[in-house]
Amino acid sequence: MFDEPNAPKRDKRMSLAQHLVELRKRLMYAALALVVGMIVAYFLTDPIIHLITEPIRIVAASEGNEDKVELMYATITGPFDMRLRISFAIGILISAPIWIWQIWAFIMPGLTRKEIRYTVGFMASAIPLFFAGCYVGLLIMPHVVELMAQFTPEGAAQFYDALLYYDFVFKLLVVVGVSFVLPVFLVALNLAGVISGRGILKGWRVAVLIATAFAALATPAADVVSMLMLAGILVVLFFAAAGLSMLFDRRKAKRTSTLLPPEVS
User: Fold this and answer.
1) Which end of the chain has the lower number of beta carbons within 10 A, N or C?
2) 95-142, pLDDT tens digit by residue?
């Protein structure tokens, strides 16, 4: 994970071939970490499957007939495929500290001290926000499944294809998780001097509209509570990003004013 004490340090004078060798080494470490993470995650697939299929059992209990609402595998290899997909997704999360470090270790020698500080701050805020978004998606997911099950016609059975069901859950968690990270990108753009805090705040109407539209797309139209909860969280994160950016702008202005020479009377 960490560089050897006697390993030669990379600098800007390295040749292209040396950079490629360094990149290959980092990719090998990242791939090895992913494989180990997948192996560990494989033993966690049973509780994970039990967790994400809880809405199906709730729907089955409400219907009073478990034979009409079930998770099914349409192919012979379906159960293994589902476990493999879950292992891959969880393996990426488990091994994240290692492969993120490998990416960081590869690009870090080319960054200035200021850029390194900003990058560390970005990662330290983006990763918790992503997991928080995944958790919110996990809270929304049962309401989505239960609500959609209410539209099943009388006398019809509802069988959920396991792989399609997993894809739905995985995409929902990822989309909501990424949406929570977007305000961090706004702060990063502010630090880079691309947009000011006041400029971010001026777009609050557009931000509220986008947050509401995204929440409406990510949740069923009839599930107003989940939509309002998701939209409200996104709006709060946007205003937090705007406020933080304005604070950074104020600090920049004070720093600039102290560096300016006094006016000659």
Assistant:
1) C
2) 877 887 787 777 666 667 776 777 777 778 888 888 888 888 888 888
- CA distances (Å), 197 to each of 121, 172, 206, 249, 255, in order? 18, 30, 15, 7, 16
Nearest Cα residue to 141 out of 245, 51, 262: 51
Domain ranges of the chain: 16-255
* The residue to which tokens 């502010």 are assigned: 190
Q: What is residue 32's predicted lDDT score, i.e. its pLDDT?
A: 92
Phi, psi (rounded to 5 degrees) for 2 = -100, 155
pTM beyond 0.85: the answer is: no
Strands 158-161 and 69-72: parallel
Q: Is 197 helix (H, G, I), strand (E, B) or coil?
A: helix
Assigned token pair, 95 = 């091994």
**Residue for token digits 């960081």?**
104
Report the pLDDT value the prediction gives residue 13, as an integer from 0 to 100. 60
